[in-house]
Amino acid sequence: DLSEMLAAGTKDVHEKAENTQFVKDFLRGRIRRELFKLGSVALYHTYTAMEEEIERNKHHPHFAPLYFPAELHRHQALACDLEYFYGPTWQSQATCSQATQRYVDRIHQVGREDPVLLVAHAYTRYMGDLSGGQVLRKVAQRALKLPPTGEGVKFYQFDAIHSAKAFKQLYRSRMNELDLDMDTKRRLVEEAVRAFQFNMEVFEELEEVGKTIQDDLLDADMPVHGTLGGDISKCPYYAAKMAASGGTAYVGQLAMAVLRHPTGQVLFATWFAALAGLAAWYLM
Prior knowledge:
Layout: H1 2-9, H2 11-18, H3 21-27, E1 30-32, H4 33-56, H5 69-72, H6 75-86, H7 90-93, H8 98-113, H9 118-144, H10 164-176, H11 182-210, E2 217-219, H12 238-244, H13 248-260, H14 265-283
Antiparallel strand pairs: 1-2
Helix pairs in contact: 1-11, 2-11, 4-6, 4-8, 4-9, 4-11, 8-11, 9-10, 9-11, 9-14, 12-14
């Protein structure tokens, strides 16, 4: 099945992506507000490009079964987030970075020249957003002291999807039913790997920017654990993977941290509630 080929074929690059410093810091709740904003800008340009090409190719036989604009499209939600952070003139401030532009250019090239490869880009982004979006939303809200009503993190809210697990099963089923030969499936795996690499380039670019800006770190009252990691571009499943592989040391460390920091209890509860779902997604 295509979904199995994609999961297996991107495993190595997935693990590399989860070990970038930007992602590690995010999942530890140690987020620079300015970098979070710039990350949202990068996501806005990425999703705008991807959804423009999806609209262009929504009747293409190799993409039409995966066309779910009401459920999945993110660029409008990201526009709301950017307006919250930058104000009404956000569009003049949300400039596309060099690494993001390379990603955007590739998406447009695929949409124009080889639309079937849009499947790889949509899979890489949307399935990850559904897998870990609620976890990341809670981390960002806590660390950046954002309103509980969702301002600034609309990107992570899929209001038209009532069950992320059921929707992901539907999406994978639709992917597996696409009439594709083996050569095309291999090209899709290669394109998904390329999508991960583009995401890593964006993370690395953000890390470099972080070295030049004032340390405006907002700590979510959680301790820093050097081994904690995740992947914001696909699915922040580190905790789930640790649990699935018997990572009791990690769980013990986190529990002790919560005992020392009562304000971390809500965040811990969120991780625990998402644990089973994330583990199931990764292991399938």
